[in-house]
Amino acid sequence: MGTLNGRVAIVTGSGRGIGREVAVQLAELGVKVVVNDLDAGPADEVVAEIKAAGGEAVACAGSVTEAGFAERFVGTAIDTYGDLHIIINNAGYTWDAVIQKMTEEQFDAMIDVHLKAPWRILKEAAEFIRVKSKGETQEGNLIVRKVVNISSISGTRGNAGQTNYSSAKAAVVGLSKTLAKEWGRYNVAVNSVAFGFVETRLTEATDEKKLIEIEGKEIPVGVPVQNVAAAKMMIPMGRAGTPIEAAGAVVALCLPQSDYISGQLIEVTGGL
User: Which positions are catalytic?
Assistant: First the structure.
């Protein structure tokens, strides 16, 4: 425990699901975490949980796509803790349809939340990281910062009904590989993690029509029970992953032991 004592992380979409587990696991390692969720309630709950366990955290609620969010999010870390070492771009959702039925609003929404929002956050952090890294190098103090951008096997392999989501998640891999080349000189390791089937509220097995509200839009969630059963049969490990397991892959890329891993894509699929 305490492997990352004193490090500061920002994690989008960390009020629920995989993002929540990432925030909690990082806090257990001594990281000071800025927790984000679309709604204040879940973000505040995670902050309270981390503090109750003896960790440090602060909430920054709001949509990653809203104007000014990147500045507020990055600024919360720097203003509260004076530094920024780890950036996890995790927030997102799916809004599916086959291409002939998909609207431009659906397509643009996925590009905005999965690609443009992470890009904005990274751009906002760029100058701070450049200046800090330069100063640390001059002092002979090597500090490797980490960026982990969340992709999906829908982006690396494609998935019917998800031209919007798959396109955005494929682009995240390109963003990560390019930034690894740009930021290597600043001692920043940039990687992406592509999840397969992980059990969250978005992938819950259900034959009922379930909706969640995101920025005034009702978005269907859940996967038909029969489809879930078929998907699990294709996974060599015979089951879906858990949020804890998915988060573990992200956290592994934040550890000192992974400092020389950069520009890579890791698929977390149970062997699929």
Answer: 165
